[in-house]
Amino acid sequence: MFGLSPDSKHVLDAISKSQAIIEFDLKGNVLAANENFCGALGYSLTEIVGKHHSMFCDPAYAATAEYREFWARLGRGEYDAGAYKRLAKGAREIWIQASYNPVFKHGRPYKVVKFAADITDVKKKSVEDAGKLDAISRSQAAIEFTPTGEILTANENFCSAMGYSLTEITGKHHGMFCDPAYTRTDEYANFWRRLALGEFISNEFVRYGKGGKEIWIQAAYNPIKDANGKVYKVVKFATDVTQRMSAISQLGEALRHLSEGDLTKTVDSPFVPSMEQLRHDFNATVIKLAATVKTIGESVHAIAAGSREIGSAADSFSKRTEQQASSIEETAAALEQITTTVNDSSHRADEAGKLVAKTKQGAEQSGLVVRNAVSAMDQIEQSSREITNIIGVIDDIAFQTNLLALNAGVEAARAGEAGKGFAVVAQEVRELAQRSASAAKEIKSLITTSSELVRNGVNLVGETGKALETIVAQVGDINVNVAAIVEGSKEQATGLKEINQAVNSMDQATQKNAAMVEESTAASHKLAGEAEALRGLLAQFHLAEAHSPRTVQKHPASPARHLIARVAKAHGAALPAAGSWEEF
């Protein structure tokens, strides 16, 4: 490519592998370029050969006299090198570290060879770092020192904060900003030894500006190392925090007073805007705390008085609770006896109900027997009438037999001797017929009397049946009433059982209440002691004005007290008067 000897060509090939190389004529037209250059710029060789160098430059720069002078110098054989901004394909911006080298033949330049390296990333980082440092320098005070503390330079922010000009501090030692007593200490000497060893130090420091003005700074000392890792300077970035430290000092003093119980101290000097709200909040807190302590003091006084009243009332209530527990216990025992009696009565009423039921059943069975007896007597009466009819027939037969016997006797008398035997028989038959007739009359008379008696018996049995029916109905009514009595006795027994359980529950509750009253009494006495202890603690606070004890207000009467009074009045003052509850 360069028309050199074989050895020189090998050297150029080695350079071409590591660098971007391009050749121009003296007017700036591209003659040749290697792959590194084409790759870096994004073009192929055919796209750039014959084109002017300005295709790689900003059009505005290519139109300047500076650019024309650039090529005029190269045309005269002058060398040029540096970092250049160029435009790759698609107007992509790149930075190159390049040297433009005129090539001579027979003592006259005839072309220019450029060797370049892409430094775009390095350049961008350098620009970014420079921008960051510039931004820091604009917002913070910056100063540079040697590793031993001599001042190299400082920005305007630092000089303004300390009240010096740059010429007044350049070459001076860092100790000019410190308390002279501090600069003679081992701590200060060790401070610079640590920085010289490369140790980063950041903290809040008190420094002194021109005229001995005290200044507080938030600073970072940054050791800067060279390529060999040796610290060659120290860069310090600082922010003036004097106002913030003054605010912290005032706030600390106010907090010290607060820790000692002094609630009269507030912070009246304005703080920096970022901390002004803190000052207002602190003052408001102190004012509210003072008001709270004052109110607590008044409340403690009221609590102490109230706790004493509660203790006295609890003692009285404890005695009444014990009396009530005793009364309820006696009531429970009496109810237990009543419950036993009612249970026994219920059992007896139940047995009476069963007996009445059996009686009703017996009466119903007797009624059935009577009805059966009435039916049987009706049948007897019917049989008596039938027997009477039969006896009438027998009486008729006896009459006919007597008549036939009479006729036979007459015929036997007519027959004479021949009829004597027959006459005797006829006489006997007649006598037998007469006796039969007489017996039939007697039987008829007896049957008639028996029928009359049976009718009377039927009537009596009927009346007995009616009476038994009435008895059955009345026994049924008695059974209903007895059943109602039994049911009532059971309900009464159940009710008494529930009442007994309720009274037992009341007894247990009263026992618990008695225990709780004892605990309440102990708690009220403890509360009184705690109130006194709290008053002692509150006495440690100092308030702007002496507070007077707050008057203890009497609470309005409870509706329960009115109810108790009404019940007491209704029962003839059986309950304590309302006045005895006032202590509660």
Automatic annotation (TrEMBL):
SMART domains: MA, PAC. Residues 242-294 form the HAMP domain. It is found in: Membrane. Residues 9-51 form the PAS domain. Gene3D superfamilies: Methyl-accepting chemotaxis protein, PAS domain. Residues 299-528 form the Methyl-accepting transducer domain. GO terms for biological process: chemotaxis; signal transduction. SUPFAM superfamilies: Methyl-accepting chemotaxis protein (MCP) signaling domain, PYP-like sensor domain (PAS domain). Keywords: Chemotaxis, Transducer. The keyword Repeat does not apply. Residues 199-253 form the PAC domain. GO terms for cellular component: membrane. One of its GO terms (molecular function) is transmembrane signaling receptor activity. Belongs to the methyl-accepting chemotaxis (MCP) protein family. NCBIfam families: sensory_box. This is Chemotaxis protein. It comes from Rhizobium grahamii. The lineage of its organism: Bacteria, Pseudomonadati, Pseudomonadota, Alphaproteobacteria, Hyphomicrobiales.
